Amino acid sequence: MAKLVNARDLKSLGGNPLQVRFLPRALALLALATVASTAAAQQPRGHLFIVGGGTQSDSLVARFVELAGGRGRARIAVVPMASGEAQESGDEKAAQLRDFGADAFVLLVTRAQAESAATAHQLDNVTGIWFTGGDQTRLPPILQGTATLRAMQARYRAGAVVGGTSAGAAVLSDSMLTGNQHPPGDTLGYYGDEFPTIARGVIEVVPGLGFVSGVIVDQHFVRRERLNRLLAVVLERPTLLGAGIDESTALEIGPDGTWTVRGAGAVVVYDARRARLTASGRPLGAVNVRLHLLPAGTTFDPGNGRISLPR
Question: Is 311 helix (H, G, I), strand (E, B) or coil?
Fold first, then answer.
């Protein structure tokens, strides 16, 4: 154990007693600097590109490739296991990305393959990762806790862009909507009554792949009328921002955490972080829930709430 040195001892050793008075402050500043440095090192250097489903315009695809390094430099892994026709879905997306100048390949794996170091090493030099649509509940059982998911997260921290559409969007956050509700119902959302209540314990939420925290993503949001679903989830979990992304629309999250909306539609944000909620066991209710409708061209800082709408 290190021995503390008092002023008399320090003077006998030829030191300056005045320095002792400032030693605790200096150590505290050093500790804060170390914490800040560690936090900066852990901050991802990559982008997220979260698409709400539907048709992706050329400008959205081009933007994803640009974030991955651009034409001739982007190397992108397409992860299609959410799809019921995974190989076909993966091949189609990889071909589209190649048309925009990327070197794209399909990473279609089982749980056993995802656990292997050989599969993880296929991601060593990728600059982008894309999750296709389908059913998001298919992805976590294959990837969670595997060497392959750790490699994906490492590439994101190192600067790769990670994106996905529809199911591939929902799975990116650490809390994930499954699409299931209690009691079971039709969740396609074209008729206006598929999520008829805003109540506790109605919407199923499970762990996602964890590329972004503090946010829960809903997709096809305006087109499929999913406002009740996301609001119920956010009121039950008020530390989470709800991001409802419409079809043909992307939510881009930069390394500094700033959101930018791109594409044809909008992102709806529910923010209950400062809301006053009814007590557990009472009917779900809240006051001071903030709602933002963010069209393409909007930037949003979820840390300070600052929004810049397009002019």
Answer: coil
60's enclosing H/E stretch is helix 58-67
- CB of 170 closer than 8 Å to CB of 218: yes
Strands (E), the chain: 48-51, 75-79, 103-106, 128-131, 161-165, 175-181, 203-207, 215-219, 241-245, 249-253, 259-263, 266-271, 276-277, 286-287, 290-295, 299-300, 307-308
103-106 vs 75-79, strand pairing mode: parallel
119 backbone dihedrals φ, ψ, rounded to 5°:
-65, -45
Task: List, in sequence order, every beta strand (DSSP E) within 80-219.
Answer: 103-106, 128-131, 161-165, 175-181, 203-207, 215-219
Alpha carbon distance 261, 274 (integer Å): 24
Average pLDDT over residues 138-167: 98
Per-residue pLDDT tens digits for 188-222:
555 555 788 899 999 999 999 999 999 999 999 99
Cβ 174 vs Cβ 206: under 8 Å: no
What number of CA atoms fall less than 13 Å from residue 266's CA on the CB side? 11
* Backbone phi, psi, residue 270, to 5°: -105, 130
155 residue type, one letter: R
Between CA 45 and CA 162 the distance in angstroms is 11
For 226-274, the pLDDT digits (tens) are: 999 999 999 999 999 999 999 999 999 999 999 999 999 999 999 999 9
* Max Cα distance, the chain (Å): 85
The candidate with the shortest Cα–Cα distance to 246, out of 163, 165, 161, is: 165
